[in-house]
Amino acid sequence: MTPRRFRFRRAAPLLGVLLTVAACSSTPQTGGAAPATAVPGGSVAAVCDKEPAGPATAPAGAVVIDPAVPGDLAVKTRSAGPGTTFWLKPGKHILGDDKYDQVSPKDGDVYIGAPGAVVDGRKINQYAFTGHATNVKLTYLTVQGFAAPRDEGVVNHDSGDGWVIEHSTIQDNDGAGLMAGARQQVRGNCLRRNGQYGINAFSGATPITALVVEGNEIAGNNTADWEAKIDGCGCTGGVKFWDVNGADVRGNWVHDNHGTGLWADTNNNDFLIEGNLIENNDSAALIYEISYNAVIRDNTIRKNNWIDGRKYADKSDNFPTPAIYISESGGEPRIKARTAKLEISRNYLENNWSGITLWENADRYCNSPANTSSGDCTRLVPDVKQCAAPAIASGPLLSDCRWKTQHVDIHDNKFVLDPAVVGCQASCGRMGLLSNFGTYPEWSPYKGDTVQQAVTFKQDNRWHDNSYAGPWTFIAYTTDRVLEIGEWEGAPYSQDTGSTYTAQAGG
Q1: Does the bond joining 441 to the residue before it have cis omega, within 30 degrees of 0?
Q2: Is the peptide bond before 35 cis (omega within 30 degrees of 0)?
Q3: What dihedral do alpha carbons 268, 274, 280, 282 form, nearest 10°?
């Protein structure tokens, strides 16, 4: 069997006022589930085209930026000292006619938009706000029409630390609307129709810490359809997180992205993902991949992965394409975080192609040619070269060179499926706990069914106290082992103790 990575590969990223949201219920319901609840007819963060207006007059002491003067914003930023406040008058602000005409803030600069203030790249300029300045703030601005290359971003291009982006619209750009740095706060923004990502949370040599993404509408990103251009690139979606150590992702509306909604890929740790509405994304609602220690709770997740699910079904591929995909990720108590496990609880999942899949690729580990994040090793082994024969075959390296799907606790969720709504037959409505048969490289200590046995029976992965409505089935150990409820609950799998089932779908 070929190594399974659900089509996804790591892309190679290039260096380069709190929104009030509708609360999601966390009150337990009967039947073991406490789903999050979106406000009727809307969402937790329906902010696009509804952003609050900025000040109509310049704040005291602010430098006024005139849209009638091309490049005024960049010129006045260069001439002012750090910590300056700039107020952009109503109108379209342009930066110049060279692709590298851009704004390079200084530490502590603040950019405030008047009602109708737009910074427009006209598909000429690549970047809007660049450089390594810290503690920069952007608010009440629209930033659009920039032509950033793939894997690069328009705002905070160089991942400066401590940036705050609030009540702004970042739309219709190539590449990513935003990059991210440490302690960045992204609150109450509309991040839509960008060519690749709404946010690319990648910083390069310096890991991102204490990232907050809260109350944003993240919609319709990956307009360039990069997965079609670079097959399996794994470089698309609403938000992509790389090597982020500590993130709170709360109260966002993540919808209609042409790829995955939220995707944490490669050595992320200590995530809290709660109270989000994630719906109508072409691929999974959420992927947590070769990463550690997360709490995923009180989210409403619906109608995701219909596009990719149908593609797999049309190919007669039996892999359980899920709404929540945990790939080589789990709890690791040796890595400091707010939790020592990966807990998925009190979520409401309705009419997604499938439910939750826990997967571990037996051939993917540090220094393996099957590891598409080829330059990275686990957080437990500092040097990729350590994971080689003969040392990898014994001692701590045998365990620590693998990203493990372990200590995953799935409980008190509600899973609802109506196949008529999804438009599927037997290939949808599945949970998965599985791996592939290890085959290569020749020196691999994980060949055969070693990892299949481990992920299925030995690594503390548990479903319990969930509620199911509709025709659910379960895939365990390998893709060709499809189980009914009784088989899933019985030995040797012993899953979903305390869970309840009804035959018909319904909220």
Answers
A1: yes
A2: no
A3: 10
**φ, ψ at 178 (rounded to 5°):** -130, 145
DSSP state string for 178-225: EE--TT-EEES-EEES-SSEEEEE--TTSPEEEEEEES-EEES--TT-
Percent of residues in the chain assigned helix, strand, coil, to nearest 5: 10, 30, 60
Q: How far apart are CA 327 and CA 284, in angstroms?
A: 12
CA atoms within 13 A on the CB side of 192: 19
| Confidence at residue 505, expressed as pLDDT on a 0 to 100 scale | 62
Taking CA atoms, 162 is separated from 133, 137, 165, 189, in Å, by 9, 9, 10, 17
Amino acid at 11: A
Per-residue CA distances from 478 to 149, 331, 359, 453 (Å): 39, 22, 10, 10
- Direct distance between the N- and C-terminal alpha carbons of the chain, in angstroms, rounded to an integer: 38
pLDDT tens string 392-447: 999 999 999 999 999 999 999 999 999 999 999 878 999 999 999 999 899 999 99
Cα separation, 248 vs 495, in Å, equals: 30
Encoded tokens for 184 = 């960045």
**Position 321: which residue type?**
T
Say how far apart CA 375 and CA 381 lie, in whole Å. 13
CA 62 from centre of chain: 36
Could you give the CA distance from residue 189 to residue 54 in angstroms, rounded to a whole number? Answer: 13
Mean pLDDT score of the chain = 90
CA separation for the pair 381, 402 (Å, rounded): 10
Which residues touch 365 (CB under 8 Å, ≥6 apart)?
A: 371, 387, 401, 402, 403, 444, 446
